[in-house]
Write a structure and sequence with these properties.
Layout lengths: L1 H19 L6 E5 L2 E6 L2 E6 L4 H4 L10 E6 L3 E6 L3 E6 L4 E6 L1 H10 L9 E2 H7 L5
Antiparallel strand pairs: 1-2, 2-3, 4-5, 4-8, 5-6, 6-7
Length: 133
């Protein structure tokens, strides 16, 4: 009887975690080799593990927690805690910035390759990204 209760409790806890979806998967694909990673309640942009020198950088490739981000197939725009704004050119694998919020908003309005990008809070972006891609 005790074994059945213990197994039932474990299965309930297991499926509750799977239902939450975030207990086992801490990384979700953004675009190209870049992903959004969640760790200790903060979000970071990381690069695929095939590039160990870049994927192991503290604070991800932008060296800090992400507050806001937006992306399309060629660019990722992110506001980094105490680090200003950065723009990742995905095909070129280059990072621009540090930019002010005003400079970034101006680029989002005027650069054709950035115009369609919509910014989201990191937590909202996490929820938007599919768990399995």
């Amino acid at each position: 009887m005790c074994t059945a209760v213990a197994v039932g409790a474990l299965l309930t806890a297991h499926f509750a975690c799977i239902g939450a979806g975030d207990s086992f998967f801490t990384t979700r694909r953004l675009v190209g080799k870049y992903s959004l990673e969640r760790a200790d309640g903060a979000y970071y942009i990381t690069v695929d593990a095939q590039e160990p020198s870049r994927s192991m950088e503290p604070g991800g490739v932008l060296h800090g927690a992400i507050e806001q981000l937006g992306w399309n197939q060629t660019h990722i725009v992110a506001a980094v805690t105490r680090g200003g704004w950065r723009i990742i050119d995905v095909p070129e694998q280059t990072i621009s910035g540090v930019l002010s919020e005003e400079e970034t908003l101006q680029q989002l309005k005027t650069k054709p390759e950035l115009k369609a990008i919509r910014m989201h809070r990191a937590e909202d972006a996490w929820k938007m990204l599919r768990m399995f891609q």
